[in-house]
Structure formats: C-alpha cells, structure tokens
C-alpha cells in the first residue's frame, strides 16, 4: 500500500469515515462519508479534483496550453507526434516538424512525452542529430510529445488545496560532488547506490539515456574527473523516481504564492502540485499535477511528516464536501 | 472515440449560459469553458467535471470497481481479475475453469480492447495477451445474456434510459448468415467491425452455427458481443416507462460508484437483472439519433451539467497575470 493510502486509513477511522479496502490487482480505498457520499483513492490519488480538469492536467500539452493561453508564464513549446500517429492525429506535426521547431527555438531544448509521468522520457537535447535519436526512443513510449524551450532556475513544487498553499519544497535533480579521483560515471553509480541504500525511490540507473543526453547537452562526459568539491548536475528531471531529491524551500519567494493559487484555479483543480522553475523573470510553470505525491517531502523529517499528515487530514475532510 | 456531440451541445449553450469555449488545438478533445463570472471548468468526452477524477477513473477499471460494487451488495455477474504479468494466462485459465466456459474478458484500465468472448482455453490464451496489451489488468466474467438497458443517472435521478442491442441478423429461410451479414454491411457503411472479424466466428461458434448456416424465417442470430454502433449494435427507445427496479438499481450503482453523472448498463433476463458496466462519460450520440425528444433530453442534461459545474467550481479570483516567456 502506498504512502497516501497508509496515511489515509487511520485518519479516516479517526474522523468517522468508513473505509473499504481492495488490495489486488492494485491497492484502492473506498471512503463512505456520513452524508452518504462515496469517494475513492487509488495509487496516490485522492478523489478531490473534477474529472475533466484532472484529465486535462494529465496531458501536458493540454494543461500547459491552457495555462499559457490564460497568460501564465509557460516556457514556449509545441506538441508533435510519431509520424505514423501524427498522420491521423496531428497532421503536419511529425518528428521532422519537431526538429524544425527546435531549430527555430534554439538548442538546448527539452523533450517530454505528453502522457507519461514520473519524469519518464524527459530529455535535454543539444542538437538536431541528438533530437532525432532521442525522439525514436521517446515515441516508442508515447506517440505524443512536446518540444519546449529550456529554462534555467531553481525548481519548486507548490502544493495547493482549496485556495491555500499547503507545502512548498525545492526539487533537485541528480547531483554528484567531485573528489578529484573518480570519474563522473563512477561518482554517479556510487551516488545512486547510496540513495537506494537510504530507501530513496530512485529507479533511474547510471546508464539511463536521460542522463547521457543531459551530459552531452551540457558538454560533459562520464569519463571526466570532476575536481574535489565540484557539484555537477547530471540530469534534467527532478522527480524522485528519476533520482531527484527534495528539500525545504527556504528561498521560495512568498510573493509568488497568490500566483500559484490562481494557477490552480485556472487549471480547475482543488488540489494540485504546481512545478515551477523560478529565476529572475519569475515563476515558469513546467507542469501541474492533479495528484501530487508528498511521500518524498514527508521523509525529510518529523516536521515535514507532521505537515503532510495535516494535509492528508484536510484532504480526507475536503473529499467529503460535495462539489 | 470522439464525442463531437458534446462540444456541439455545449457550444449551442454558450450565449445563454454566458461562457466562452476554447478547444485544445492539438487533438480537439479537451475544452476549457470560462464563464462570465470568471469560473473555469473543463469538458471532454472522457471525463466530466461534475464527477470526481478518481471515481471516474475507477469506473474504467472493473478489476477494482466491480469488487467495490460487489461488496456493496450490487448484482454483478460472477467475475475474477488478473494483473498483467508472466502468470496472467495461467491465472485467467484457472478463473475461466472455475466460472465455466464461455467467459468474457474485459480490459481493466482507461485504454483497452474488448470485451471478448472466450469459448475454450485455446481462444482464452490468445485473448489474454490482447486484453492486457494496453491495460494493467483484466476481468474474467461469466456472460449474462438478456435485454441490455442503459440508464443515464444524474445526481441521484434517472434522466432517461434506452435499450442497447448487439448486432444480430434475422433469418429469412433463404440466405446464409454470411449473406445476411453482407446485406447488413451494405445498408450500414459506418459499421466498424470488418465482416471477416474473428469475433463474429466466435459468436457463431458459441451458438453452434457458422457463416454458411441458413437461419430459419424469423430466427434471431447474435453475431457480436458489444452493443456499440461501430460493432453493428443499435439503440432503441424504451417501449414504456423504465422498470422501477432497474431505476432503483441504476441510482444505487451510481451512488456506490461515487459518480454524479454516469450511464449504468444493466442486463435483464428471466433470472433477474445484473449490473454490467458503469460509464462515467457515456457516448450519448446513438441515443440522440432516436429523435427530437432524445436530443432535447441530452441538451437539457448538458445544460444542467454545465450550470452545476459552474456553481461547484466557483468564480476564479482576479488574476495578476504574468508576462508570457
């Protein structure tokens, strides 16, 4: 049973919500409120968001398009598809069109499958040749993908529930620290092994193509030996499954919080995890999640866990309020 | 599957309900509605904002949803489930043996194929891999034959109902089943099921017939399992009022599914009524083809859905918009 379901069970019992549990073929809960309302939880998904808005958030091309159209700061992007699929679904928007778009945008560019999550298939790409190769890999997983302008800055997740900012944490991609002796490849393998030993969710391996493309895009090589103390970023994606880590967001500008609440409303979501890159220009929305997982943040320590437990309690209560 | 009828119905209401509708430029399957008071909501053929997202998704996963419905005491046909994995075929075969052939295989997930009828272990083995190609799990279910009724429920009320009939040919004592199929095809160019589709042969074999069989005058021969239009199915108006037992069962199934809006598919025979499926985003276009009254029912329903969505989503606060990057 995953983190949210484990958290929800005792809270539901304490608050008088009766629960039915199904464990196979996947864990799921049914919450039955005193009012007669029935709600469900599967995976790490609480039943709180309107269904169409949640579906819009699940497809990156849709959510980013509607947010950009509403005037929010979203890095320039366009949507394309695998040639055989695009022929019927997105005419004129195949791989060749994607490369032409990236050429016009300027490299490096970011490539993201539209329908996958957990940073799967997300690459930083440095050239048209590289893009051609990456697209054959990406489209094998998802026929629909985005090509997007690369924006640098610090990445945060802002978790919003019913008009309140509940959590803000910083997300960092895989970083290694040089010791003047080991290669980048060796440092990376040691880093990922240490993460897993600590119980981290990382599923990425040192030979993952996302790491290889990031190193090429940033002019790095697995064989180079970073100097002692040098911090080297080795991947684009900051998701936990992709080896990313989270930390308390001590420097997130408080002035951005109203904008985050407005973004959730614009997306039609009561509960949302908004992933933003913050730099001197402001907050750039890179993704909005209708079902943000907070387990990685809760693992930071007792205070973080208490915040997530409080949020879970409010989620259980909010699910019981009919919309 | 696209439900253009939904966007058309919404567009017709935009002036009266004071909203603008913007459809995504990529696939044309997701629309954003912005009401005059600033409320934003979304509309798609796959999901409705009056339903909650997880309950809506769960309804597309019968391996989970049927367990909850059975626990709630609703009459679902005997079933079991199998997750994708190396032992899936073996587990499905065990379930089928326990239930007895033939069995129905259904995908459990948003993307899937089927349902399929498996009449023996060999066919079942082939169908398991197909059924699990896109879905993480499948349901093996005892088939129930009878009259299919779709009941559209909104917020605890039955809005309308209609009969659904899978494709069947009626014998004239002269032509073979193959000739009857070809005649149907000639009259229905939109038929998606190919005439040489193996599923037709499986259905015929189950009825101890083949394509060369000449049915007697008036003999009804089922040739498809699904009642969809693409599979040659038809929708018919109810001959009278909806049976109160069916209405009550549909309302309870919707409530137990946690859905404000859905179509409940029921099947009735001499032994009783069973719950076949819960559709959180039903395609109502075939029903609308029944005539002006049906179109009016759908238009009123969509209007109610949009008004309630606006009320539940609330006005969007004034936004200090950022400059686009």
Write the layout of secondary structure elements.
The complex is a heterodimer of chains A (323) and B (325).
Chain A: H1 3-14, E1 18-22, E2 28-32, E3 38-42, E4 45-46, H2 51-58, H3 60-69, E5 77-81, H4 83-89, H5 95-105, E6 109-113, E7 123-125, H6 128-141, E8 144-149, E9 154-161, E10 164-172, E11 175-177, H7 184-197, H8 209-217, E12 231-233, E13 245-248, H9 257-266, E14 271-279, E15 282-289, H10 295-298, H11 302-319
Antiparallel strand pairs in A: 1-2, 2-3, 3-4, 5-8, 6-7, 6-8, 9-10, 9-14, 10-13, 11-12, 14-15
Helix pairs in contact in A: 1-11, 5-6
Chain B: H1 4-17, E1 19-23, E2 30-35, E3 40-44, H2 53-58, H3 62-71, E4 79-83, H4 88-99, E5 103-108, E6 116-118, H5 121-131, E7 137-141, E8 147-154, E9 157-165, E10 168-170, H6 177-187, H7 198-206, E11 220-222, E12 234-237, H8 244-256, E13 261-269, E14 272-279, H9 285-288, H10 292-313
Antiparallel strand pairs in B: 1-2, 2-3, 4-7, 5-6, 5-7, 8-9, 8-13, 9-12, 10-11, 13-14
Helix pairs in contact in B: 1-10, 4-5
Descriptors for this entry?
heterodimer; A: 323 residues; alpha+beta; D-amino Acid Aminotransferase, Chain A, domain 1; Dna Ligase, domain 1; 4 domains; 15 strands; globular; B: 325 residues; five-stranded antiparallel β-sheet; 10 helices; 24% strand; disordered C terminus
Helix count of chain B equals: 10
Helix coverage percent of residues of chain A? 25-40%
Number of strands of chain A: 15
What is the CATH third-level topology name of the largest domain in chain A? Answer: D-amino Acid Aminotransferase, Chain A, domain 1
Major sheet of chain A: order of its strands? 13-10-9-14-15
Q: Which residues of chain A form runs of ≥5 with pLDDT under 50? A: none
For the largest beta-sheet of chain B, the strand count, sense and barrel status come to:
5 strands, antiparallel
Shape designation of chain A = globular
Helix vs. strand class of chain A = alpha+beta
Structural class of chain B: alpha+beta
Which regions of chain B have little confidence, pLDDT < 50, spanning 5+ residues? Answer: 316-325
The SSE order of chain B reads HEEEHHEHEEHEEEEHHEEHEEHH
State the strand order across the main sheet of chain B: 12-9-8-13-14
Biggest interface pair, counts: A-B, 62 and 55 residues
